[in-house]
Amino acid sequence: MKPIKIITFIAFIASASSIISGLILDISYAQKLVGFGVVGLFLVVFPLFSYYRWKGKDLRDYMLTKENLDKMKANQKENKI
């Protein structure tokens, strides 16, 4: 396994367990546990996952440019959608 994948998985498990324990446990700082879990998901896990999945791909292939729109129109005409 790649190190970035392991780090992302560990951060996800930590965030998810923080959210779950904050919802289940009846302690004074339960809301903070849920909050830190959500912040961990959105500020740590999601960017790491996005970086891991998009690394090495060309972003221009996923943008709506004139060339890509023309390719989509041509593809629709060929497939008669």
| Overall outline | elongated
User: Portion of residues in helices?
Assistant: over 70%
Task: Give the N-to-C terminal Cα separation.
Answer: 41 Å
**Beta-strand content estimate:** under 5%
Gyration radius from CA atoms, angstroms = 20 Å
Care to count the β-strands?
0
The secondary-structure class comes to mainly alpha
Unreliable spans: none
Mean residue pLDDT: 91
SSE sequence, one letter per element: HHH
As for the number of domains, it is 1
Biggest β-sheet: count, sense, barrel? Answer: none
Number of helices: 3
Quick structural overview:
The protein has 81 residues and is mostly helical. Helix content is 75%, strand content 0%. The longest helix has 25 residues, at 30-54.
List the helices and strands and how they pair.
Blueprint: H1 3-24, H2 30-54, H3 66-79
3D structure, described in words:
The protein is built from three helices and no strands. It has 81 residues and is an all-alpha fold. Helix 1 (3-24) runs antiparallel to helix 2 (30-54). It has one domain. 75% of the residues lie in helices and 0% in strands.
